[in-house]
Write a structure and sequence with these properties.
about 220 residues, alpha+beta, elongated, 7 helices, Arc Repressor Mutant, subunit A, four-stranded antiparallel beta sheet, Jelly Rolls
Amino acid sequence: MPPEFIDFCLAHGRFRHYAPKQYLYFSDDEGNTVYFLVSGRISLYLMGEFSEKIIRVLSSPVFFPEIVLDGKSYPHAALCMEETEVLALDRQILIRYIESNPSVLWIFYRELALDLRRSYRQIRNLSLGDARLRLGAKLFALAHVHGQPSLKGVLITIPLSATELAGMCSLARESVSRILGELKKIKIIAVEKKTITVLDLENLRRWIHERAACSGTSID
């Protein structure tokens, strides 16, 4: 972001601290604030009457939600996964700044475009009929976005339970637990409590493509 835009945000925004499991906002709340994630991680949830689904996990630095400029309510809920600090900026103040500095719109356009591509990829992965393909594709994406090199391979730095992974992939928890067990057995991943390590990303990629070939699914 341009230094002058950062200075503007620091001058007009408010730093807020949140504890783990604390919500910033809920779905359908009035969308009057844009947030800049300074530290910590945040899960974006779609929440129904009897279920919830993680659609994205945010790590700093990032601003969200990208679509808040339309003046409508928040389309999802935002939950802190750990100790979190954000910079909160009033939407109307931000809009007035953008009106005076239209070049800043390109920042938001790029983020919206990236988010749209993520959404298309997620729709594609969820449309795959094979549960193993869905979970494998999600693990591969998590390793790339939230992975950290370790002695064993690539550590997915977000603690995730089988239930949370199931919500991400629209699968039953029992199915996710069974598939994780299969991947452990063939030494593609290692699991310790909520910590998942991809032992070899290339092996995982090959396993995904083999599954896709067997089911006749294109994942390019």
